[in-house]
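Lab meeting, item 3. Inverse folding demo.
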């Protein structure tokens, strides 16, 4: 056997041995990475000791280092935390969260310039990632920089969902409640369309703000927007809050000022008594129709003979036993006596006690202020009328169509009732 052959064979053996070693190293590295990832995940399920095991397999695992660093912060071990977090950053410089933890350590140690620099760098790394943005919001809040805190929280809530949003709505509301900090919300109120959580927050504010003035301030900021006008939903929520606080006059005036030109023709003590408009179920001073699901009750505007205008109200019932009071309109009537007139046509309407219109006081006082006679059977269009007496202290009222009777069987209704040409006029 020639020396050349022996040399080539030896080289082949060495090459194969080298490849085997490389393969073994790669397999070990893959195994170590997978096992370290496994133990990091195990730690997230309540086994903190697993983080140390993860580092045994991979001493540079960035997540394990970052989590141990965060744990050290909570245990008030800043030196240990700083070492672990710096190692996490070195292992994965693209992860902003350990940088934010280091920034917080710097700020807590009055090294605010270094902290601010790291916070700015972290934002550059993860400008939209919700967890990082939430950390930034908390950092700037601790630094008492409300504008930056709100800015980052707004971005964080875009990526967050459900409970995360609800958890931080109180903080945003607290900002809105303070005149000196409210301007921090201006970038949001100017164009809330890029913040899909805004409507939910405004609904929360309208419901839970301690002072209606806070909600009014938010409305004013939204109305000042040159980009996105105040939405119909925001307007409705605001009116609902004014009504909740018994600010009925303010609610009514705000509602009137928001009517479009085409709707002004239907304005009076009663709005759209001819049922020419679609019923939209808002909280203002318009018709609301909200029969229960699967009740067999339908309330619509429709064509029929003998109407004034193009349409009349059609309320149809399937015979189910339901205490009906699901068509109403809020009113704003001063103290005094009024008369409500209208036209009615029952169509094979079967009801033991029938249906009637009733006006009740629902703000400032309580009690029934007037009611019509009852409607049932079959007949042609006829006129009806009844008086409404509003006493002092009754600052808001509601007109409702309802079934009559004390027993459940009285509310078993079948057939159709047509209504048209309702008007309220003040008696002289």
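The presenter then showed the designed sequence:
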């Amino acid at each position: 056997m020639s020396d050349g052959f022996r040399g080539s064979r030896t080289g082949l053996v060495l090459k194969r041995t080298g490849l085997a070693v490389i393969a073994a190293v790669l397999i070990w590295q893959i195994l170590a990475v997978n096992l370290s990832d496994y133990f990091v995940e195990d730690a997230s399920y309540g086994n903190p000791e697993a983080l140390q095991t993860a580092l045994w397999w991979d001493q540079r695992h960035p997540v394990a280092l970052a989590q141990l660093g965060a744990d050290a912060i909570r245990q008030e071990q800043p030196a240990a935390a700083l070492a672990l977090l710096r190692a996490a950053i070195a292992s994965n410089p693209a992860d902003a969260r350990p940088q934010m933890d280091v920034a917080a350590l710097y700020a807590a140690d009055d090294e605010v310039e270094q902290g601010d620099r790291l916070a700015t760098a972290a934002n550059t790394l993860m400008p939209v990632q919700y967890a990082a943005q939430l950390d930034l919001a908390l950092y700037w809040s601790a630094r008492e920089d409300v504008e930056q805190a709100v800015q980052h929280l707004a971005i964080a809530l875009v990526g967050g969902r459900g409970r995360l949003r609800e958890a931080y709505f109180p903080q945003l509301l607290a900002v809105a409640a303070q005149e000196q900090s409210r301007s921090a919300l201006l970038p949001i109120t100017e164009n809330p369309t890029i913040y899909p959580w805004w409507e939910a927050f405004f609904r929360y504010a309208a419901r839970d703000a301690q002072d209606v003035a806070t909600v009014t301030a938010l409305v004013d900021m939204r109305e000042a927007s040159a980009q996105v006008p105040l939405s119909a939903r925001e307007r409705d929520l605001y009116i609902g809050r004014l009504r909740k606080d018994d600010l009925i006059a303010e609610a009514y005036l705000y509602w009137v000022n928001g009517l479009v030109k085409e709707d002004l023709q239907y304005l009076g003590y009663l709005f759209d008594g001819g049922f020419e408009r679609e019923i939209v179920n808002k909280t203002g001073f318009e018709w609301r129709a909200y029969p229960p699901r699967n009740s067999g009750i339908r309330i619509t505007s429709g064509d029929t003979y003998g109407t004034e205008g193009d349409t009349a109200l059609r309320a149809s019932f399937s015979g189910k036993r339901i205490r009906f009071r699901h068509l109403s309109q809020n009113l704003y009537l001063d103290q005094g006596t009024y008369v409500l007139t209208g036209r009615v046509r029952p169509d094979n309407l079967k009801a033991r006690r029938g249906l009637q219109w009733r006006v009740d006081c629902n703000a400032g006082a309580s009690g029934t202020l007037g009611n019509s006679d009852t409607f049932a059977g079959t007949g042609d269009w006829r006129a009806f009328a009844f008086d409404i007496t509003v006493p002092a202290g009754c600052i808001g009222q509601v007109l409702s169509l309802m079934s009559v009777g004390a027993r459940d069987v009285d509310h078993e209704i079948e057939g159709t009732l047509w209504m048209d040409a309702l008007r309220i006029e003040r008696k002289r």
